[in-house]
Amino acid sequence: MRSEDQPRAANRPTPESALRSTRGPLIVVSGPSGVGKTTVVERLMADFDRPIRRVITATTRAPRPGETDGRDYYFWSPAAFEQAIADGRMLEHALVHETDYYGTPRAEVDPPRAAGVCVVAVIDVQGAETVRRLYPGDHLSIFLIPPTFADLATRLRGRGESEAGISKRLTTARAEIARAVEFDRVAFNADVAAAARVLGVLIRRAFQENEICTTT
Questions:
Q1: Alpha-carbon gap, residue 210 to 56, rounded angstroms
Q2: For the chain, first and last CA: distance in Å?
Q3: pTM over 0.85
Q4: What is the pLDDT of residue 6?
Q5: Half-sphere exposure of 168 (CA within 13 A, CB side)
Q6: Running DSSP on this structure, what letter comes out for residue 206?
């Protein structure tokens, strides 16, 4: 009898069913404002060969030119954001730059992971700290840093930031980069394609580790 004609053991999952039962990895990508976190993640997702989605986070800041509600962020009013906090619908949230709320809705993380989808949360350093506390040993955190602060300032100017806003964000960036040691991995974003390839290698490894843990 050929091996493929033999009956499968009753309690042994097939490779396909084992893969479907695997919880998707949770990936945290953080770094200072303007470092290109979302750009790198979108480049990665454009041709990634595993099920993956980027978490859509919520914010109370105004949309920038070209940004769309539900695609780039959920743009909520302060009252709506505070209601979501009160209802327990936020996985993490923070007041960033002392001006605007940013946060991650719970519905963006756990349901996709249960379906085997890799979830990539592009969040600030404060949010990453919360994820470490809520998902100890169950996520991979990656910190992106720019080649230089001058490069970071140039990127911020390209987004239309005021000089006062750039100064505030660079001050915050210095404090955030000092916390890079808290993350599992650190990657430079001198080139978007190269940074995306690094993230791809790390995320594929996370998929493999999840599959091993689930099927052994």
A1: 23
A2: 27
A3: no
A4: 42
A5: 9
A6: H
